[in-house]
Fold:
Amino acid sequence: MDKAQILIAANRGPVSFSFGDDGSLQHRRGAGGLVSGMISVATEVDSIWVCTALSDADRRAAAEAPGARLDRTHDLDGMRVQMLDIPEQTFKGAYNGVANSTLWFVQHMLYDIPNKPSFGSKFRRLWEDYSAYNNAFAEALVSSAAENARVAVQDYHLALVPRILRSRRPDLRIAHFSHTPWAPPEYFRLLPTQVARELLEGMLGADRLGFHSPRWANAFLRCCAEILGSDVDLDRRTVEHGGRVVKVNVHPLGADAEEMRRNAAEPAVADRRKTLSDRVGDTRLIVRVDRTELSKNIVRGLEAYRELLLAHPEWRGRVTHLAFAYPSRGDVAEYRDYTNTVTHLAKEINEEFATPEWTPLVLEVNDDYPRSLASFQMADVLLVNPVRDGMNLVAKEGPLLSERDSVLVLSHEAGAADELGQHSLMVNPYDTVETAEALHRALLMPQEERRKRREALVEASMALPPRRWFSDQIRSLE
Structure:
């Protein structure tokens, strides 16, 4: 890789701030292999990570740092970070009103079509906030970028940035990566026509575009052909638009095995494991770990577990479902309602099947990473059944830590299905009977078959770890 400057643009930064008991600012590095992989590349060269303040503590840190450069006031282990303090109203309109409540719903195909969406004058005002938000990022990148710098723009929050950069700084080499699925044109057309065009043209300002799955890349290409009328080559995955040819690449993010295993060796994980073992006894374990997002399909997963207990009563008292969920997007009404539905259904299942000696379902909705790692170690079956998912790293992380050769029951709508499908039990995420039978089959699977499947899953999951995933995108710009 050459030594040109690298700029990373992402809504969330590699560090976040909080207030100590004495009111002082404290910071911590973002968790997860993706952040570690991107940082490991960025700290080796001249680089700046541009992000936005997400909390009051973040905003204070940005205000106190000269030029909002956090590395000038805090020791960030070699990272250079510029944190933008976007006006609160603009941020809310862009992040909640457009990114999370509109673009996320479109790309995951989540709308209740007879009732939503409806794009009136309120949405037009929100779209102005989204445009202003993207322009703020672009302005920061333009100001910080050296000549011929490489810029890696992340995700649907910043879809307009590449085109703005292209118009301002044609010397830059720009990549944009989408971590979500991409809706086919039949669904993408739900958006107002001009908004749909602006999103596509905004991304086509990049030199390279990236997706986790060939399915999502091809859906984007079809949108370019049918909505923009661009000349698209599906075999080569190229788009000719505005006198330029843009290459669309597929980079399926893998798990960071080294970091996962290091984290799993922490004492807190052993503590959670003991607590869980005391709670579930010697029962077999079906595990799921998700955010409480509509796309994760937790409700149908619980309904499938109920189907299992009804269709195969021999498992009553012999299996426990551990369902661990991380709170997500509590400021969006649909997500609050969904979390309430999950909680209510879990209570119903326990009331229907529990005995004095056995609790069939353990649902916990809170943030507890050590607990998740412990559950991966203990799982006999890992259930990952999203209705639509850009990748789903849980499907890759779980097998890495499994000590019982857990069987992966996987939705064919997860991006991870492209790589892991042949080693998993694949299910239609809408079919709770099929999912229940897959759980039953997984619980009965012979040990040797379980072992072979898990070993193949681990190999596939490690194929493109975060550092290489990010490096490949930067190299594609050289």
Q: What stands out?
A: The chain is about 45% helix and 20% strand. The chain has a mean pLDDT of 95. The first helix runs from residue 33 to 42. The longest strand covers residues 284-291.
